[in-house]
Specification:
The chain is mainly beta and 131 residues long. Helix content is 3%, strand content 49%. It is globular.
């Protein structure tokens, strides 16, 4: 599925995976995911089928959904304004699991998206379909 996963939301990537220079503090940080700028109220969709293992508030991330894809991969969706999925629920690829909004965490309506192989973050842009 590398390079063909559906996008969790429609929007422009404004923060990329990997080592990045922080625009305000002029220091380097290691980003474990990407941020996608979206319209407030956009639907967040699961990128692969799996089971919801976390759906709640998480310090520094706001409202979060984590999906275990049962193949060694996990996806994390953060800065949601509303959760539509519950822990223990099975979700299909493309199923709505939340909504975006200005949560006050970032100052914009963005979705933070992470993809992990086990405990290791991987670059989501290598897995998402090219646009």
């Amino acid at each position: 599925v590398k390079g063909v996963l559906p996008w969790p939301v429609d929007g422009a990537v404004v923060s990329f995976f990997g080592r990045q220079k922080h625009p305000t503090f002029e220091t380097y940080i290691q980003r474990k995911g990407i941020e996608i700028l979206v319209n407030e109220g956009s639907t967040i969709k699961a990128v692969m089928a799996g089971n919801v293992v976390y759906a709640d508030w998480l310090k520094g991330y706001g409202l979060v959904v984590i999906v275990d894809h049962l193949n060694g991969y996990f996806s994390l969706y953060a800065h949601a304004s509303k959760l539509l999925a519950k822990v223990g629920e099975h979700v299909d690829a493309g199923q709505a699991i939340g909504e975006t909004g200005d949560t006050g965490m970032t100052g914009d309506s963005t979705l933070y998206f992470e993809l992990r192989e086990g405990a290791e973050p991987v670059d989501p842009l290598q897995w998402l379909a090219k646009r």
